[in-house]
Structures are given as structure tokens and as C-alpha cells.
Amino acid sequence: MSPFKITLPIMRRTSSTICTLLYIFLGLLSAITVCGNLLVIISIIYFKQLHTPSNYLIVSLAVADLLVGIAVFPLSMSFSLSYCLYYRDLFCKIRDSVDVILTATSISNLCCISVDRYYAVCQPLTYKSKINTGIVLVMILMSWGVSLLLAIGFIVAEVNQEKCQENCFSDVVLEKVLAPVFSFYLPVTIMLCIYLKIFLVAQRQARSIQNAVKPGATVINMERKATKTLAIVLGVFLMCWLPFFLCFSFQLLGGVSMMVYETLNWLALSNSMLNPFIYAFFYSWFRSAFRMIISGKIFQGNTNTKLF
Q1: CATH no. for residue 232?
Q2: Domain assignment of residue 161, given as a range
Q3: Domains in the chain: how many in total?
Q4: According to the model, what pLDDT value does residue 136 have?
Q5: CB-based contact 124:223 (threshold 8 Å)
Q6: Which residues form the signal peptide (predicted)?
Q7: Angle of helix 271-282 versus helix 284-295 axis, rounded to 10
Q8: N or C: which end of the chain has fewer CB within 10 A?
Q9: Element (H or E) spanning 79, and its range?
Q10: Is the CB of residue 82 less than 8 Å from the CB of residue 165?
């Protein structure tokens, strides 16, 4: 599914029973991904209490995850991954470009969310002036725009390699080395540094508010909980995507089996399904919003319904 291709052994046929069970499982995975992210998007759009800059970034992330469930999952199920590892037709290029756009957008959104959390925790007095709706909209547009440019770069590199066959060193470097560095390793390194800084500041704040008044302490605790939740989102993202990118990096030194590659590829895609469950588990207001949507109570209430 991913544009980072690996030279693999000859394909073997899989029994129809196994394929059927696999398609059922992946179909359920796709359905859960779509429904879960729809709940997040509807919750934030419907309830006015959730209309905050931080949540707009979460909406952008949920939209990317939703599109993974709608587009990438079905496309990857319609034609097996092995097909596009051996045949580089138009369908495979389209699927790769969609995949790159959504993957890079997810990473970019997580970067923006980490910046938002940095100002919320480390510079709370200037947070509202520096992170407002306008700034967040610019962040979202940049995330999707940069991802689109990356996808275009991948397609151009692949087309050039097909034309010149052997003398495409620069395109190979772009696709095999620079692409994963700029689309994954560098953004993730930046996010880890930001969250480390946030953790250290939060630790100092926790010690300094021990004798503070209760309302002030409550606000700080809410910010710390939000940061912890979003750090877990990043951790889950790394758990899902890091094995795949490491697999791609190590394949330059030797072959990687089809089964390992496909397994890690679907593990990476499953990240789009997990994020809504993280929000529901750690945010009581998301749980309340989810319950109201699933039970149909939103059709009886109004957008000012209290969630917390």
C-alpha cells in the first residue's frame, strides 16, 4: 500500500478461505475506523463547548483518519498489496499518492497538536493570543498542503525512474531516503523533543501548585491531562508506524518477507482506528458526546448541552 516499495520473493497464492476471512476482518477494521472518526468529527462540530483551537486540530486529524477508512482500506483490499509491489500501473500510483497524503497529513497534524500543547502548558498566559482559530486554520491548511506536495513528489520520482530506468540516482534518493526522513523521522523527532519539554515544564508546575488555590490547580491539571492524552496519541502513532518505517529502512540492507511487510503495513493503518478510542477513554466529555450521538439524544437537545 505504501509508496516505499520493497524487493520481495515470488508471490504465492493464498487460499480463498483465508482471503475471505482476511477481507471480513479488514472490512470490519474499515467500518470501525469510519464510525469512530465520524463520532469525533460530529461531536466537535455539534457541541459548542468543543469549539476550541485544540479540537479543530483533532478534527483535521480525524478527517485524515476517516479518509483512510473510506479510501485507503477499500483500495488496499480490492487489490492485494503484493500486486502493487510487482506492477506499477495507474491504480497503484493513485493509491500510493492517496496514502502518502493521508499519512503525511496525520503526522503534520500531530506536529501542530504538539505545538498547541507546548503553548498551553509552557506559556499559558500567552496561549490564547498565540494559538487562536486563525492560526490553527493556517496550521491545518499547511498540513494538508505540504502533504499534497509530498505526494506529487513521490509520483514525479516514480515516473522519472520508469523513464530513465537505470540512471535515476537522485529520484531513488528522493523516494528511498529523503522521503521517509522528511515525512516521518524528522517530524517525529521534533514532536518527541516538544513533548519532552512539556513533560519537564509540567513536572515543575506540579510542584509549584501544591499550595495553590483549588481553581488554579484544577486548570493546570486539566491542561496536563489533555497533554498526557495527546502524548498517548503520539505514542500509539509511533507504535503503529515506527515498525513499518524501520522495516522500510532495513530492507535496503536485505530482503523483507511479504508477510512481515503486509502485517506491518496494516498495523500502521490501524492507527487511524485507534485514535477515537483514545479520546473516548481519556476525555469524559467525548464519552458524553459519543453517548448522546449514538443514543440519538442530539436530535432532542441543542448545541449548548453541557458535557462537563
Answers
A1: 1.20.1070.10
A2: 17-299
A3: 1
A4: 95
A5: yes
A6: none
A7: 110
A8: C
A9: none
A10: no
Residue type, 269: L
**Other Cβ atoms within 10 Å of 262 Cβ, number:** 18
Q: Is residue 5 part of a domain?
A: no
Would residue 20 be called left, alpha or beta, if left means φ above 0 and alpha means ψ between -120 and 50 degrees? alpha
3-state DSSP assignment of residue 230:
helix
Torsion of CA 170, 161, 183, 178, to 10 degrees: -20
Specify the DSSP class assigned to residue 52.
S
Residue 3 lies in a domain: no
Which amino acid type is present at position 164? C
Buried b (16+ CB within 10 A) or exposed e, 205-238: beeebeeeeeeeeeebeebbebbbbbbebbebbb
Residue 38: per-residue pLDDT: 93
At residue 228, the pLDDT reads: 72
Q: What residues in the chain have per-residue pLDDT under 70?
A: 1-15, 78-92, 157-177, 205-207, 209-227, 230, 251-256, 258, 280, 301-308
The answer to whether residues 139 and 57 touch, using CB atoms and an 8 Å cutoff, is yes
pLDDT computed for residue 7 by the predictor: 43
Residue 260 burial by CB count (10 A; 0-12/13-18/19+): exposed, middle or buried?
A: middle
Sign of CA dihedral 284, 217, 44, 240: negative
Counting Cβ atoms within 10 Å, is residue 13 exposed (0-12), middle (13-18) or buried (19+)?
A: exposed
Sign of CA dihedral 150, 155, 156, 161: positive
- Residue 2 belongs to a domain: no
Please indicate, yes or no, if residue 247 is contained in any of the structural domains.
yes
